[in-house]
Task: structure prediction
Amino acid sequence: MQSLLPRRMFWAALIGIVLVPGGTLAAAQVAVRHTEGLLRGFLVLRTLEGDTLAGGDLAQVLSGDRVTSRMVFHFKDGSIHDETVVFTQRRSFRLLSYHLVQKGPAFRVPMDVSIDGPRGRVTVRYTDEDGKEKVETEQKPLPADISNGMVLTLVKNIAPGAQETIVSMVAPTPKPRLVKLKITRVGQEPFSAAGPRYEAIHCLVKVEIGGITGVLATLLGKNPPDHHVWIVGGAVPGFVKAEGPLFLGGPSWRIELASPAWPH
Result:
């Protein structure tokens, strides 16, 4: 446990102590090309080597133009990753609220993050390295393109000709900070599903910290790892898989669709 503390303390300092702009990259809301609706799916979380860590459940409901999406992972070790986002889909996607709970041995810092988009209020509850519970609250205007909990939805709606899309995100850390996500399409990759072959669009998602903090991270080789998302394109785009860390400084894990298993 002691070996984790320097890294934990470094990342807390690196991300910053207040909610401040994360750089000068131009960001904009993603236009709605495919409206979200009723959805229920099952997911699996694995290491990049293929070891199963957790089973997941994705549930999404629609009320008017208001979408509520919740993704929960139950880990074998008892840990929980519970993420709920509420957003609207008028012309462009707009976050209303976001709630993330991470607890258990899989996560270095147990955390409860809440975002109120219209009010610009971010509340982070976490347990520090001494086991003490802390609460950090910041209230500042948030940009309209906040993407927490919405990246998989946004990737499906990026125009085919757009090579680069930049949106904002509140980094879920003990000291909240605005960062930019730069999403680029890097090519297509073949895959099969029970026989038939398809083409998946591979998207790269880079976290841009920006400012002097970003310069420091680059110099020290501590930039956040890249995320990768694969989707099926066309008239009915769909999620295939994603790879990346679920928390800052954590290992890259893989999220995939899960196949039902029936008792014999």
